[in-house]
Amino acid sequence: MRKRISVFIGGEHREPLVKGPSWLSKLGTLSILYVSVFLTRIGFGSILIIFPIYLNIPASMSSLAGIVTALYPAVEGFSALPVGTFVDLRGRRRAFVAGMAMISILTFLIGLSNNLVLVGSAHALEGLAAAMVTVASLTMITDLTVKENRGAGMGGFDLANLAGYGAGMLLGLAFSHIFASNLGYSFLVVSAVMGASAIFVYFALHEPVHSSKEQRSLRGIYETFTGEVIGILPVWFALTIVLGFFLFLPRLVKNAGVTDLAQSAPLILLALIVLGVGAVMFGRLSDKIGRMKTMLIGALGELGFLLVLPELFQRLIVIQPGTPLIESYNLVGPIIFLGGILFFLGSALIPSILAYIGDKAAKEFRGSAMGLYSLMLSGGIAIGTVLAGISDDLGGVQAVFYSAAVIFGGLGLTSAWLLHKQQALARRIADTNVPVRVLSKSSVA
Question: Which CATH class is domain 22-210+225-432?
Answer without folding.
Answer: mainly alpha
